[in-house]
Amino acid sequence: MNAIDRLVALFSKLPGIGKKTATRLAYHILDADPSYALLLAEQLASLHALIKRCSICGSFTEADPCPICTDQDRDAATICVVERPQDVRVIEESREFHGRFHVLGGLIAPLDGISPSDLAIGSLLSRVRAEGTREVILAINPTVEGDTTALYIQKLLKESHLIVTRLASGLPVGGDLEYTDRLTLSRSFRGRVKID
Amino acid sequence: MNAIDRLVALFSKLPGIGKKTATRLAYHILDADPSYALLLAEQLASLHALIKRCSICGSFTEADPCPICTDQDRDAATICVVERPQDVRVIEESREFHGRFHVLGGLIAPLDGISPSDLAIGSLLSRVRAEGTREVILAINPTVEGDTTALYIQKLLKESHLIVTRLASGLPVGGDLEYTDRLTLSRSFRGRVKID
């Protein structure tokens, strides 16, 4: 196995990258200026040393606590609960939310052996008590595991007299009724909003 | 820009990798065992030092001349001409060809400023004269640039009394007449073969 084959084998392990794509990438890098490969190598080699988990919210960050948790201009009374660190990025890019985050690190999935104790739910309850939270927004995917996890957290938070909300589920913007699945349609009916 | 953003920016420069895919890859690597990132970094850092161009055929290799050019069991009298080093890999994987290769390093494309002198055509003529070649197979893509390049090489080799062939063009195996474009259909008619 030569150096190209080894690189192809490594690229093939990435999600959504098959052997053909891995080969195309490897040859592209070989054809490109060597400085690109060196720069990419450097970034990869230093990645895990530079990036840690925020000790408050659990998202990836270079500084602990992360810039979002320490930003005094953000609304500390609202916590947006997400499954994974990359969800924080997606929500930040939408510029729709200005509170704090909390990363669960997964969803309850008994079939995959993931129980509530594997997730950062205990630390969420501590934060809610300590930070004077008024609203917890569950920004969790509308899947079976997501629904289970949302219901579980909602029940735990019931006693704390705060508002627990969940992202609206329904037709995507630009979507088409004809191509919408039955469950999404059913949710968009149940969650219909009044037009003023 | 933090370490994740820098990695995303670098991945986004790869062909067929948009910002979304680049982000998914970066977070996947961050989530995975750090040994993967280090291994990938190592391979990338050493890639250009390990891989060179074969001084005979022009394909990528760790040893110069490459294992194909030095393999005495291969038919030295047949040269398969390809556009890029990765084409050598594709043909090798098909196990259909047992001769030597010659990599042009591109195709004639006047609009992109690529003329015959930019390609390894001179060295092909030298090899044909020196190696006692009997057949040159032009394994060049059936595109406008490919057709131009094939015609150009064919004319140059005309005087040398060797066989010049080109890969058959026509319906792909498992293909459907209904979904075949007009040019491919036309080529498959002109190249039709007699059934014994």
Structure overview:
The structure is a homodimer of 196-residue chains. Chain A is globular and about 60 Å long. Chain A is of the alpha/beta class and 196 residues long. In chain A, helix 1 packs across helix 2. The longest helix of chain A has 17 residues, at 34-50. Chain A is 44% helix and 13% strand. Chain A contains 8 helices and 6 strands, in the order H-H-H-E-E-H-E-H-E-H-E-H-E-H. The first copy, chain A, starts with a helix and ends in a 6-residue tail after the last helix. The mean pLDDT of chain A is 93. Chain A has a 4-stranded parallel β-sheet with strand order 4-3-5-6. A two-stranded antiparallel ribbon of chain A has the order 1-2. Chain A folds into 2 domains: 3-50, RecR Domain 1 (Helicase, Ruva Protein, domain 3), CATH 1.10.8.420; 53-166, 3-Layer(aba) Sandwich (Dna Topoisomerase Vi A Subunit, Chain: A, domain 2), CATH 3.40.1360.10. In chain A, helix 5 (85-94) links the parallel strand 3 and strand 4. Chains A and B meet through helix 1, helix 2, helix 3, strand 2 and helix 5 of A and helix 1, helix 2, helix 3, strand 2 and helix 5 of B.
